[in-house]
Amino acid sequence: MEGVENELVRQRLEKQARIEAIDGVRYPNDFRMSGFVADAIAAAGDKDGPALEAEPIEVALAGRVMAINSFGKAAFVRVRDQSGTLQAYVKKDAVDEPTFERLKLTDIGDIVGVRGVLFRTRTGELTVQAREYRVLTKAQHPLPEKWHGLKDMEQRHRMRYVDLIVNEESREVFRTRTKVIQYIRKFLDDRGYMEVETPMMHSVLGGANARPFCTHHNALDMDLYLRIAPELYLKRLVVGGFDRVYEINRNFRNEGLSNRHNPEFTMIEFYQAYATYLDLMDLTEELFRGMAMSVRGTTTCQFRGQAIDLGPTFRRLSICDALREYCGYEEADFHDPGKSFARVLACGVAKAEAEHVWQKLGEVTPRDAALALGMLAFEHTVEPHLVQPTFVTDFPAVISPLSRRKDSDPTLVDRFELYIGTNEFGNAFSELNDPQDQEARFQGQMSAKAAGDAEAMEYDEDYVRALTFGLPPTAGEGLGVDRVVMLLTGCDNIRDVILFPLLRPEQ
RNA sequence: GGGCCCAUAGCUCAGCCGGUAGAGCAGCGGCCUUUUAAGCCGUUGGUCGCGAGUUCGAAUCUCGCUGGGCUCACCA
After folding, report:
1. pTM to 2 decimals?
2. In chain A, N or C terminus with fewer CB closer than 10 Å?
3. By three-state DSSP, how is residue A337 classified?
């Protein structure tokens, strides 16, 4: 940063040296806290001043100085730890000379240790009457201003540690993030799911349609991908007899950044044998409702300027019905790529984009092409309508290479995506467990790859082999955890819910 | 990657119709032993993101670069 030449830093280094001269130690680590601030507050309960005087409670607290109100011969020092904030009162005639000197050398931002008994000020505020007061760690760099905090988004992301110190809203977002993950974990644990860990370095690309990050293992002289999804490994585990598994997984996709996309992001992916995508819809509603109630105490939330209610039963809308309702599709349009193409253009999709999508499909039937093109119209025209939670169901098989075909129509699959606030939150389907069909689907992906689809999956021979040993009828789902946190915290930018989002290097 | 916008003191911002910088907070000095955005008096602090150009003169106008925000595209 601006370096030690800065005047403010120079002053603080000077104070640090003077404290060291008093204490004989520059970074002491022998202060022992009696507990957190919250414990001290709990110990005092609602006892009034006289009660605290009658039965003194001694505490030793440590934390960061957030404010100092000084009177020259006494001062209030507001100390914050992980659990909360409590002020200490240090007065000259209640402490020895070196202690009062330490107080005078304290800056906002310093880490201090305070020992003393609890009392109440004339306004009734619980306060530690300091007997011992020490500076444990000098903050050599000043903190941002106390009531505007740190506003600059770039600074907040680059120096998250400072953001967390000064912005309570930011601390709250990440506490909520932790609660969300704890809730999901407990929710699945309670239902007999087993948490597992699968490889993040893959030699075969699969489980999603996305461009990967590449890396290299030196000793094996082997190129590897950072995983884009754990799906194929999790289903291998179901083959292995772990009927219900889940992984809270970090995935890596080599795509553009946006306020909804970070190259590494967190998903919760879970699989349940002897279930279908219909079962997962019920489970998903239950999860979202319980999570919202647990984390926020209500099923309503604000997301990207929209009022969302997770309380009512989620709407269920098939792709084809959506296209009929919002894009004017008629029966013939679902079978004739030319007609579907015309509908797509009528929806306002750029011709070049539609042609590109058509072209990179590779060798497909007219029905498949018509449906795949329809997805463009869906994304362009239907998505903006999906504000309240909606399960979009029955996707085209041609774009769903791992999903089970519908018994009633093999060109469609038993799949849903969950939309909330016009954004996709999750993706689930009954798993394709027919190894011969899976082979054919991988062939289709290879065909698409050959036709120029950079995001197509690779042919995973071992996965097909696993299927030949028998994958029970299974349903699986993935949810974007970062987006769930955005929804429940009202953050519009994914970077606000990721502690250290990817940024370009400084300078 | 495309479009629009932003970058001034440690932090939050003003100045932008060109005349080489201002406030609040923080800091420093003084007064103040129950404050809580404490108060009162005084005061330090800036290669105005970087680099060119126009001009007698640029924080201000122009171009380029860097970083960021919003938005579009792909995904979750």
Report:
1. 0.92
2. C
3. helix
Distance CA(A419)–CA(A371), nearest Å, equals: 20
> Could you list the residue range(s) of the whole structural domain that residue A223 is in?
168-314+388-434+456-497
Residue A443 lies in a domain: no
Q: How far apart are CA A89 and CA A94, in angstroms?
A: 10
Task: Provide the domain count of chain A.
Answer: 3
Q: How many angstroms separate the CA of A154 from the C1' of B70?
A: 14
Read off the pLDDT of residues A44-94 as tens digits, 9 standing for 90 and up.
999 999 999 999 999 999 999 999 999 999 999 999 999 999 999 999 999
Burial of A18-47, coded b for 16+ CB within 10 Å and e otherwise, reads: ebeeeeeeeeeeebebeebbebbbebbeeb
Point out the nucleotide closest to A425 (alpha carbon to C1′). B76
Read off the tokens for A226: 């950072």
Q: Is A294 exposed, middle or buried (0-12, 13-18, 19+ CB in 10 A)?
A: middle
Note the ipTM here.
Answer: 0.89
Q: What angle do CA A372, A376, A382 make, to 5 degrees?
A: 120
The token pair at A404 is 């089970």
Which residue, counting CA atoms, is nearest to the C1' of nucleotide B1? Answer: A256
- Strand B bases with any atom < 7 A from protein Cβ: 1, 10-13, 24-28, 31-39, 44-45, 66-76
Beta-bridged to residue A133, according to DSSP, are A114
A121 touches strand B (CB under 7 A): yes
Residue type, A262: N
Which residue is closest, via its CA, to the C1' of B34?
A: A121
A258 CB inside 7 Å of strand B: yes
End-to-end distance of chain A based on CA atoms, in angstroms?
10
Residue A348 located in a structural domain: yes
* A138 and A227 housed in the same domain: no
In this structure, are A264 and A399 located in the same domain?
A: yes
pLDDT(A152) > 60:
yes
* Strand B at less than 7 A from CB of A127: yes
Same domain for A218 and A91?
Answer: no
Strand B contact with A396 (CB < 7 A): no
Q: Do both A257 and A128 map to the same domain? A: no
